[in-house]
Design a protein that fits this description.
This protein has 97 residues and is of the alpha+beta class. It is built from 2 helices and 4 strands; from the N terminus they run ββββαα. Strands 1-4-3-2 form a 4-stranded antiparallel sheet, with no helix packed on it.
Length: 97
Amino acid sequence: MIDWKQGSDMKKGDTVFMYVGAPVSAILYQCKVIETDIPCDYRSKELTITKLMKIRLQKRYKPDQFTFVRLKSEYGIFAVRGARGVPNSLNCALKGK
């Protein structure tokens, strides 16, 4: 279990898929949100964090399973730049349905 920067719409019980950028460029983890709205006051030139969420790892994916190339060609995802929704077809594939 780890603390992670909280997206604005996250709530306890949500599923979070974590994408790792270059050179991996793939979704590698499925996590469950355990707790939200943990106060935080972190500021740097690149990043400001005011709230954290506690997440628990549920599943790992192989680096070649949900690559950016596949996300683009099969699921219409052309950029990964932070928290975003997941198309239903990709959600089902990630959850093995």
